[in-house]
Write a structure and sequence with these properties.
Length: 397
């Protein structure tokens, strides 16, 4: 008997604004969660399931660059993303239209903000489609539910024994849900999920047991809950790395520090842009994950790095952290110099470092001090930077 082909639509076309916090500007599906983006975790949950034939991300038109930067391994089952519509319903329809030429037997529709769909949950939904036209995971409602017409006055108490909280993935026989979505697009009504469209179209929909870990990341506090879920299955340890760098002055008109150009009567001498702060910070990150030092990855003898922006080195270190399943907790940089004055530039440096590494600037500290006129720093012959990095990594045996 031929096995059924299963396609997955990962709906990631929302702006994800409600989950913003602490200066975060990335939509929630592109935020880092224990070292990996939410969307990458969601996609991987389905690519790792042997029954899945195709995975199709549906993304926002403004997020093409963000998607291209995701830490996704190449996989022949992962399709190029398609752009979504103005609503979730419209985005799902765009996904269904894209899948139509592939003629899958079944389709699972998954919210990008649910990164914890387990293999068992996927199997349960697919299993129910042997008897039903559609299926979805759901959890019983345990709280007493009140009905109110104005958000204040209680008019009724619902029978919670008849209620359940819907989750995704929601599964359907492809041709049936495609037809239902096409019909729904012609009526002036916004459906809350795909199962409601199936119900409206007269399809038989079953519920299977949901998973309490299968949370939807919606609000800022949900990230903390998600990290605790990951911590239960992926034990982590905190690693500390330190970095130190020094560069002398040379004739010039500006120095690069922390990724910021600061006008000055001299420049820093060295290979690349001689950004002593970013060099120390890169070494600290590399040290924390056991990846040598900056010279190992970017040898001074290699002419391609002459005059290069040191943000390139820092970004490379950040990608190594992500590739190892790590997460940057906080970074601390101290710059020791008599001149130029640095304190007023510290916020801009934190912003550059945060953007380069894809973390919030409030996880970065940049401090400046002098050497009280002592030594080569006191003689204004150069600048020293020291840095430390705290990184959570999967626990090694």
């Amino acid at each position: 008997m031929k096995s059924k082909s299963v396609a997955v639509i990962v709906v990631a076309a929302g702006k994800g604004e409600r989950a913003g916090r602490g200066g975060h500007t990335d939509p929630k599906q592109y935020r880092s969660l224990a070292g990996r983006t939410v969307l990458a975790r969601t996609i991987d949950a389905f690519l790792s399931h042997p029954a899945v034939t195709l995975v199709l991300p549906v993304i926002h038109g403004d997020h093409v660059g963000r998607y291209a930067a995701l830490d996704l391994a190449k996989n022949v089952r992962l399709m190029a993303p398609v752009l979504g519509g103005a609503t979730r319903q419209a985005s799902v329809l765009e996904g269904l239209k894209t899948l139509a030429p592939h003629r899958p037997d079944l389709v699972l529709i998954q919210d990008a903000a649910r990164p914890f769909a387990s293999a068992q949950l996927i199997e349960d939904v697919l299993g129910a489609l042997d008897e039903y036209d559609g299926a979805l995971p759901a959890l019983p409602v345990t709280d007493t539910i009140k009905r109110s017409l104005n958000g204040r006055d209680v008019v009724a108490t619902e029978d919670r024994r008849q209620l359940a909280a819907a989750q995704t993935p929601q599964g359907f026989r492809f041709e049936q849900i495609f037809s239902a979505h096409m019909r729904a697009s012609a009526v002036r009504r916004e459906f809350t999920d795909d199962a409601e469209i199936a119900e409206w179209a007269g399809l038989r929909v079953a519920m299977v047991s949901g998973d309490t870990n299968n949370i939807k990341i919606t609000h800022p506090e949900d990230f903390a809950v998600a990290e605790r879920i990951i911590g239960g299955s992926e034990a982590v340890e905190t690693r500390i790395g330190t970095g130190y760098d020094v560069h002398p002055f040379a004739p010039g008109d500006a120095v690069w520090l922390g990724g910021v150009r600061i006008p000055h009567s001299a420049k820093l001498k060295g290979h690349s842009d001689a950004d002593v702060a970013l060099h120390a910070l890169t070494d600290a990150i590399l040290g924390a994950i056991g990846e040598g030092d900056i010279g190992t990855h970017f040898p001074p003898s290699d002419l391609q790095w002459e005059g290069a922006a040191s943000t390139i080195f820092l970004k490379h270190a950040g990608k190594l952290v992500s590739a190892a399943g790590g997460r940057i907790v906080n970074l601390d940089v101290t710059i020791v110099a008599e001149t130029p004055r640095i304190a007023s530039h510290a916020p801009a440096m934190c912003a550059v470092i945060g953007e380069t590494l894809g973390i919030s600037p409030n996880r970065v500290a940049v401090k400046a001090t002098t050497n009280e006129k002592l030594g080569f720093i006191g003689r204004e012959e150069g600048i020293v930077a020291m840095a430390s990095a705290s990184i959570e990594m999967p626990r090694a045996d």
